[in-house]
Amino acid sequence: MPNNKGSRPERSIVAERVRVDREALGMTQAELAFRMDWPPERVSLIESGKRDIRADEVPRLAESLGVTVWRLYYAPGDVVPLARAAG
User: Fold this and answer.
1) Alpha-carbon distance 86 to 69, whole Å?
2) How far is 22 from 24, CA to CA, in rounded Å?
3) How far is the C-alpha of 12 from the C-alpha of 54, rounded, in Å?
4) What is the pLDDT of residues 23-77, one digit of tens each?
5) What domains lie within the chain, and their CATH numbers?
6) Is pTM beyond 0.85 here?
7) Which of 9, 21, 52, 73 satisfies CB 3.0 to 4.6 Å to 2 for a cystine?
């Protein structure tokens, strides 16, 4: 579960969400790699937590999995801090 101190979510959380959402679609790692125009081994590295996803890849990855960007980072029930108003 992501911590609530404003730092980036754990790599393992995103990795698990990618795997779960891909499998829910009945999609193979090779199929997701094809959709993302990635080498096939990249999905395996991401799902095993050995490689990060670049920020510019996240929206397209979410779209390829049929989920929101939010879904990749947070689960229902996670407590997410609100940004403070400037001033």
Assistant:
1) 25
2) 5
3) 15
4) 999 999 999 999 999 998 999 999 998 998 999 999 999 999 999 998 888 776 7
5) 11-73 (1.10.260.40)
6) no
7) 9
